[in-house]
Each structure stands twice: as structure tokens, then as C-alpha cells.
Input
Amino acid sequence: MSNFGYTSGILGIGGVLPEKVLTNFDLEEIVDTSNEWIVQRTGIHSRRILEKDQPAYLLGVEAAKIALNEAGIDAKDIDLIITTTETPDYLSPSTSCLIQKEIGADKASAFDLNAACSGFVYGLTVASQFIATGYYKYILVVACEGLSKVTDWEDRKTCILFSDGAGAAVVGPEQEGYGILQTNIGAVGSLGHNITIPCCYISQEDIENRPNKNKRVVWMNGSEVLKFAVRAMESSTRTILDNAGLTVDDISLIIPHQANIRIIDNALKRLGIPESKAVINLDKYGNNSSASIPIALYEAKKGNKLNKDDYVVLVGFGGGLTYGSVLLKWR
Ligand code: UT7
Output
């Protein structure tokens, strides 16, 4: 894919995490696991999760407000809200509509987009197309997740990984040559059975897969997803670089989905990118699905890691199975 028409870019970015910290030592009290195993196999030390009675969408509201403030854009000027989530508080109203109401983006249309952990790169891709055609000018992409709500706290294979959080970006017109230069998104539905979160229906196979037959929780075949993730992150990154006529040496910063340090390290190794160019925060926050990339981007911005003219790659993978990447030139 290449962009056409009006150029778009990220005008403001925000990230928010719940206050509650759940450490590996806390998890040792809940399931048969150890801090050592979790650190060695995932790189995660602690994660942030919502309180039981706290909805996820309010994190999205806070992240959206930060992004709007940074962009200097009034919520009333937003044309469209796209919330990427695989854990909406409600199926209806959508999380986008809940956020629209809270921030007062009265003129915005609003819908949710589910591409699991790849959601934010999918969301940026969709937003850039609306702007390229001139259909909309300002779009709020909010990645808002509450994985702790669908976690099986008796399944040690998954409960050590997932967490909650939200990130948001205001996407709008950008000077030519800057902003979103390339995007690549894809899906391999034939592998979708490897991560499932049932909602209104569940197959017999998926009931049997769950240790507790607890229907509304996440289940995952971790090693299959891990293999897919490394390959997908490498090939999606190579695709956007090739399409832009760039090489890995041109990249100043890579912001991968924060799922597992082994996945990130393997993908970086295959690409020939040193870890020093990657933003990694999974040790503190765990895997908060589509929110992980915008939160890491927000932290990179706050930490002055983004400079004018930098080429930045965002790359993710997740349930579906899906994958995707975005190439930015920072201004
Ligand atoms: O955002 C996208 C979502 N998904 C992912 O990113 C997940 C990708 N996959 C992974 O991150 C890894 O596959 C996991 C971290 C989930 C698991 O690591 P692994 O190296 O693939 O381990 P495994 O599933 O092959 O399990 C190895 C052993 C098993 O024991 P046996 O059968 O060899 O005796 C597991 O039962 O480790 C055991 N195990 C644990 N032991 C202690 C699994 N989970 C735990 C645990 N604590 N929490």
C-alpha cells in the first residue's frame, strides 16, 4: 500500500495506565509460577491492571485528552473517533461512543475496530486513508484495553502476560514528506484459533481448551503465537521499508508491540536492528494489547527519544491472527 492524496501524521499522543500494580511475586501467590520463570520466558516484572469495578474506557478518555492537548486540537474539531479494542466494556455502545460523550467530540462519527494487539497500527492505517481522500481532517485513534477483565486467574499460561492501559493519537494533516509514510496490515485467519476470547458464542473446542471451562476468558497457544509473531514483525517491517525505499539502517527508533522480550529480541535480530533502537517497557507494564504501541510512543516522546527527521517504525501482531506496521517520519 502507498498513501495518496493528503499526507497525515500524528499531531498529539497520549498514554495512560491504571494505578494498580501486579508483580510477579503477587502472581506467585495466585498460580503455580515463579518470578524467575516469568522474567526468563517473558521479560515481564510487573503489570498494571484495573480495579474490578473500574471500566477500561475511562483510561481511553484520559489518553484522548492528553493527545488532544498535545495536538492543540479541540475535541469539537474531531471528525472521527476510532477506538481499537478487543476488550470493550460494552459491545453497544461502542467504546468510541463512550469516549465521544466524555470528551464532548459532538461532531465526530465513532466506531470500534478490533484487530487485537495489532489494533493501533490498523487504526492509524484507517485514519490515514480517511485523511488521504480528504473525507476527514482530524481523527482520534484511541487504543483502549482491559485484558484483566477477560483473564483466567487460574491459567498460569496467560495470567502472567496480560494487563490494561490506553493510548491515543490525534491524526491530522501533515507537511508532505513527514508523518505516516507507509502502512502495512494483514491477517492470517487460518491461525486465529491460537488466541481466543469468546463473546456471544463459544465452540465446543474452545470450551474444552479452557482449563476451567470458564467461557469468557482468553485462551492461547503461546508457542504458536510466538513463532508467528517473530516472522510477522520481521516481514511487515521489511515491507514498509522496501516500499519507502529505505533500509533498516535508516530507522532511528522501532516501537514493537510489548508482548514478550524474546519475541522482540528475535525479531530485532532477524532485522539486524540493535536493541538500543527499540522502545521496551513490557518489564513494567506487561502486554496491554493494542495500547502497548501508543503508550510506548508516548513515553518515547516524553523521554525526548523522538527527533525531527527520525524514521520511526511501529510494528505489532496479535489475535486474529493479525499483524501490521507503520513507518513515520517525525517532525
Ligand atoms: O499480544 C499477543 C498475545 N500473545 C503473545 O504474545 C504470546 C506469545 N507467546 C509467549 O509469549 C510464550 O509462548 C509464553 C510466555 C506464553 C510461554 O512461553 P513458552 O516458552 O512458549 O513456554 P511453553 O508454553 O512452551 O511452556 C513451557 C513449560 C510448560 O511446562 P511443560 O509442559 O514443559 O512441563 C508449561 O506448563 O512452562 C510451563 N509454564 C509455566 N511454568 C511456570 C507455562 N506457564 C508457566 C508459568 N509459570 N507461568
